[in-house]
Design goal:
This is MarR family transcriptional regulator. It comes from Paractinoplanes ovalisporus. InterPro entries: HTH_MarR-typ, MarR/SlyA-like, WH-like_DNA-bd_sf, WH_DNA-bd_sf. This protein is mostly helical. It has a single domain, classed as Arc Repressor Mutant, subunit A (Orthogonal Bundle), CATH 1.10.10. It contains 6 helices and 2 strands. A two-stranded antiparallel ribbon has the order 1-2. The two termini are 31 Å apart.
Length: 140
């Protein structure tokens, strides 16, 4: 049987982090999934198919998500040089600026949550959190 305090603590921490991210995204007129999209594209230029897998979205959902971001000038689509059937998604300068600004605000918020932790506690929490995240889990 699961330790209820453990489960509750992790659930409450998840809510705290997700709410902070949602609030920051909202201030920039972004949804959580749009924020994740920009986070992925900060460091990668995936295909539409890879992006869908990474974000856990089907083909029509990822198309709509990228369409909306493209209309806002945050991303662009380009055909792959090696296979014209494949479309690559890239972040624009405006998208990168927005992604970096949101990431900085998010880091500041997380720092405020952890303000009462010692450096040893921070290191221990980092190690434990990394152990809980499956190696195959998408980031962002």
């Amino acid at each position: 049987m699961a330790d209820e305090n453990f489960v509750d603590a992790l659930a409450q921490l998840s809510f705290l982090v997700q709410n902070a991210l949602a609030e920051i995204a909202g201030r920039h007129d972004l949804s959580l999934i749009q924020t994740r999209l920009l986070g992925v594209l900060r460091d990668h230029q995936p295909t539409m198919q890879d992006l869908g897998r990474h974000l856990g979205l089907d083909k029509s959902s990822i198309s709509g998500l990228v369409d909306r971001a493209e209309r806002r000038g945050l991303v662009t689509r380009t055909p792959s040089a090696s296979d014209r059937r494949v479309v690559l998604v890239s972040i624009t300068e405006d998208g990168l600026r927005l992604a970096r600004q949101g990431a900085a605000e998010f880091a500041e918020r997380i720092e405020s949550f952890a303000a009462g932790l010692s450096e040893d506690d921070r290191r221990a929490l980092t190690v434990l959190a990394q152990r809980l995240i499956p190696r195959t889990a998408p980031s962002a």
